[in-house]
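Entry — protein

Goal — C-alpha cells:
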Amino acid sequence: MSPLWRPSAAQTVSQSVVLGDLIQVSHVEGSVTVGTELPAYRVVPANLEPVPLSLERAQAQPSRLLLARHQIVPFAGRSQTLNDLAIWMRSPEPVAIRLIHAAGGQGKSRLASEFATQYASAGWTVWQATLGPAPRPQARALNLPGGAVLAIVDYADRWPFSTLLALLAAMQQCHAEAGVVVRALLLARSAKHWWPAVADRAEADLQAATDAFALPSLVGENRNPDALFIAAADRFAGALGSQHVGGWPVPDLDGPAFTRLLAIHMSALATVEALRHGDSPPTSSYAVSAYLLRREQRYWHEMWTRETSLSTLPQTMHRAVFMATLIGALPRLDARRALVGAALATDVTAADKIIDDHSVCHPPTDPEMVMEALHPDRLGEDFIALSVPGHSHHDAGITDDWTQTAPAAFLVGHGKAPVSTVNAISVLVETARRWPHVATRVLYPLVRAHPHLALAAGGAAVVRLTGLPSIDIRVLEALEPLLPDGPHLDFDVAAAAVSDRLTHHRLARTSDPAERAHLHNIHSLHLAKAARHQEALQETEEAINLYREVTEKDVAALPQLAEALNTRGVLLSALSQPQEALAPTEEAAGIMRLLAQADPAAWEPMLAATLTNLAVRMSELDRWPEALPADIEALEIYRRLAKSDPHRWEPQLAMSLTNTAVRWAAFNQLGEALAVARESVAIRRRLATAEPDAHLAGLARSLINLGAWLFESKQATEALSPIREAEGIFRQLATTHPAVHLADLATSLTALGNVMVQSKRAAEALPILEEAVVLCRSDHEADAEVSSAMLILALSLLGAALLEAGKPERGLVTLEQACEARRIRAASGSATSLSELASSLANLGLRRVQSGQQDQGLDAVEEAIEVRRRLIQLGYDGHLRELALLLWAYAELCVGSQLRIPQAQEAVVEAISIYLSPAVVDPAYQHRLIEMYRTKATILQELGQTSAANALWLIIDGFFMDEEEG
C-alpha cells in the first residue's frame, strides 16, 4: 500500500495483498487529483509448470532446449541443498531471506524452480519477482490463499539496493498485515559487497533473518560429468526426434570450462545436433557456443527465405538479437526508440516490422514486452562476445564490427528506460568476465566516454564492474567524481568498491607519507558509509600512524590527524566500542583546542564540531556531567561565529542549541532544555522564512524536540502544537521529496502518537501510529540506525495504544515485534541498546500480566532482569538502581499473580540489598525502600512466615509514625 495511505473502515481488500499503490476513493466532493508511482519491480504468481516445446520449434532452434522453463533434462542431484532449504523453510522466523549465489550456468534457476514446485504442492503461495515497473494497467493485488509465501528473486545482484529492500519490505508487510510466514529466496552470481549491505538493512529495518549460501558445482556433488553429459544427450535427442546408434561421443570434460552444469548441457546439445546433421561434434567450450549460435543464424536465414518470409534481413536480425540480448525485453515504445537510436530502423513503422519479425523468431515470455533476449544467459553472452571483433575464434563466423559502436548508439541520448541501461551494463560486465576483448573493445570505452551510463545502471552494476580482474583504472577514475557525496543507499557500497581499487592503485604509486595518509583517510570514509566499519577502522589506523609520522616534521598536518582520530572514534562507536571510541575523540579535541588557541578564526569551527562529537561519545558512556560542558563550549563557539557571520553559522548554532538541550534534558533540567530549545526554534523559524527549501526541515525537527520537552515538563496541551506543526511541514515536504522526508514524517507522527498515548488518548493515536509504522517499514533511504530505532519506538507506542483501545491481541503481538527488533539491535552489545531492550521486555511483561498471560509476562520480566545484570557486568554501574526497581516490580507481579513466590522473595531481598548500598542515588530513595519492605512482608506472609512478616510490619508502621510526628 502507499506509504501515506490510512485505512478506512468502509473500504477493505481481503484475501490478498497489494504491492504498490492502493487507491480507494469514496464520498469525495470537489476536484481531486490522485497521483501514483508504480513500484520499480513486478511480482506475479510463479509459473512452475514446464512450458511445452514443439518438435518443429526444437529442431528449428535447438538452443531453446537449454531453457530451464522447458525442463527437458530432469532435475537431478542437489539433495543436500534441498535438505538445507527445507530446514530453512521450517525455521521459526516469521520472515527469512536467503541468498543463493554461484557463477552463471551453475543451475540456480532450475534449483529454485524445483524447490518452489515442491512447496507449491505443499500449499505455499509462490511468487516471482522481477526488476522493472509493472506495465499499465496491471492489478497488483496478489491472492494469499494459504498461510505462507515463498518469493523467488532472480538476478538479485542487479537490483538497485533500495528497490530490492522495498520489495523485501513489502514481503515483511505481508507478515505484519496478513500474518503469513514469508520466505524470500534471492538468486545472484555474486555476494561480494552488495549482500552484506542489504542483509544489514534487512535485519535492522525489517527484523528479517538473513543468510547466504554459495551453491557448489553439481559436478563436484558426487556427479560424474560424463554421466551428466550422457543423460542430457539422451533427453535432447528425444526432444529433437533424433535416433543415434551406439553411445554418445563424450568430449574431454575435465578443466574449468566444464565445471558448470550448463556448459555440459550445451556440449551435449551441440553433439546431438551435430550428429543429427552429419557434422563433427564441437569439443571446446567456445566451439560449442559457436556451433549453437550458427544454428540460430541458419534459422533466421531460413525464416527470411521462406515463401511466407520475414522481411528483416538476416544481418539485421543478428543485430536486433544482439541489441535485445544486451538491453533485455522492453515495452514496445522503448524498443522502437532503441532500434531507431541504433540506426536499425529509420522510423516507427520500420521499427515495428523488426520487432514483429524478432518476436516470430524469439517469442517474448511476457506478453506485455518485446525484444526477448537470447537465452540462456551464457549462450547470450557468448553471442555478444563472438559478435564483437577482437577474439581469436575467427572460424565462429558471426563477427560484426557494428557491435563495437552500437551499445553507445542506443544507450546515449535516446531516452532509454533505466532497466535497459541496467541490463546493458550488467550483461557487458558479465560477458567481459569471460571474454576480455569485450571489456577493452566495448565496455571500457563506453564507460570512459559516458560514465553516467554506469551510474544509471545503478550501484549494483558499478560493484560488479569494479570486480573485473583487469579493470581499466581510467574507467574508475571517470566514475569517481560522479558518485554521490552524501549518504546514498544505492551508491555507498559502489563508492566503497571503487575506492577499494583506486586506493590500492594509488598507494602503489606513491611513497609520500602525507599523500598515503590522505588516501587511507578518504578510503576509510567511503568504507564507513558502506557499513564496512571494521575495514574502515583499519584504514583510519593506517592514516593516523602516517599522520603522526608527518606531524613530527610538519605540524600543518595536525588538522588531518584530528580528522582521522575523529573518524576513528565514530567507527569504534558504530562497532559498539564506546569506551575505546572516547580516547581518539579526546585526542582530536585536544589537537583542535591547541590549533584554535593559536588561530581562532581558522580552527574554532572544527573545534566546535569535534567538541560536539566528544559530547556524543561521553553520553554513550553515561558520562553526562562531562558531556554537557563539551556541548556548552561548542555552543559558545557557535554563538560567537553566528554573531560575526549569521548567514553562515546560524544553522550550526541552531543545531548546537538542540544538542545542548538534549544534554540538559538528560540531567532532568527541563527548564534549561526548554530555554535553549525555544531559542533553536526561533532561529530555525527565521531561517526557514528566508530560505524555506534549505531550513524548513530543520525547523520541523526543532519543533519536535520542543514538543517532547514540553510534554516531559507536564505541559501536554502545549506540546501538541509544535509537534502538529512539524507533522504538517514534513507531510508537505514528503509530498515533493518522499525519498528524503518520509522518514521525517514518520518521526513527527511517532512523536505525536507518543504524546497522545501518554495523555490517555489512545483512540486518536491509533491511525497516527499505524501510519508511522508503515512509513518506517517502507523508507529505505534513511540511515539504518535511525530508521530502525524509529520503527521500534513506533511499534512500542502502537502496541500500547492498541492495548489502551481494548485490542489486547494485536497490542501484544505489536509489542513482541518491538522486543524482537530490540533483541537484534542489542546483539551489538552497546549499553544503550541493552538498556532499551530491558525496558521493552519489562513493559511487555507488565502488559502480558495485565492481559492475563501471567507466566509469559513473568518470563519477559525475568529476561529483562538478566539484561540489566549484563549491563552491570559490563561495568555500567549506573544501572544498579534500574535493576533494583525491576527486581521489585517482578516481585510485585509475582505476588499479584500468586505465582513464583519463592523467586519473588529472592528478587525483593536483592532489590533491598542494592538500595542499601551507597552506589544507588535516588531522590525517592527512602520511600521506595520502605515500599520494598512492604512487598517483602507480604511475601513472607504468603510463604507462611507470619512472625517474620509481623516483625517487618511493625518496623514499617514505625517509620510512618515517625514521619507523621516529624
Observations:
- The chain is about 65% helix and 5% strand.
- The chain has a mean pLDDT of 84.
- The beta strands are 16-18, 41-45, 95-101, 125-131, 141-143, 148-153, 181-188, 209-214.
- Residues 595 and 603 are 6 Å apart (CA to CA).
